[in-house]
Design goal:
The chain has 94 residues and is of the alpha+beta class. The chain has one domain (12-86). It has 2 helices and 6 strands, in the order E-H-E-E-E-E-E-H. It has helices at residues 21-28, 80-86; strands at 12-15, 34-37, 48-54, 57-62, 66-69, 75-78. It has a 3-stranded antiparallel sheet with strand order 1-5-6. Strands 2-3-4 form a 3-stranded antiparallel sheet, covered by helices on one side. Strand 3 and strand 4 form a beta hairpin. The longest helix is centred in the first third of the chain and has 8 residues, at 21-28. The termini are far apart. 13% of the residues are buried.
Length: 94
């Protein structure tokens, strides 16, 4: 079996916190993006989800998930534990 390493590169991402739908809407800029709620919790921001159109179809981002812009300009949700194992914040002070 061969081993592979992720190529270094900078990605853009926004963390869904349940209250920043407009920020995600602006980031994704897609007519199919929509806000949904877990069944039975309509109107309760604590249980808000975002439906993200991806290359594989619609995927759900729960509060705490990151929405990532991929290398081809595609978007997809990522669980926070995977995000933090895979990416680190870039210092943009330079």
């Amino acid at each position: 079996m061969k081993k592979y390493q992720k190529k270094p590169g900078i990605i853009e991402a926004v963390k869904w916190d349940g209250n920043n739908f407009k920020e995600i809407e602006s980031f994704v800029d897609n007519d199919y993006l929509r806000k949904a709620y877990r069944e039975g919790f309509e109107g309760n921001e604590e249980h808000a989800q975002v439906v993200i159109p991806t290359l594989e179809g619609a995927m759900i981002a729960n509060i705490g998930d990151y929405i990532i812009k991929g290398v081809e300009g595609e978007f997809y949700p990522c669980k926070p534990d995977i995000f933090h194992k895979t990416y680190e914040k870039v210092n943009e002070a330079e």
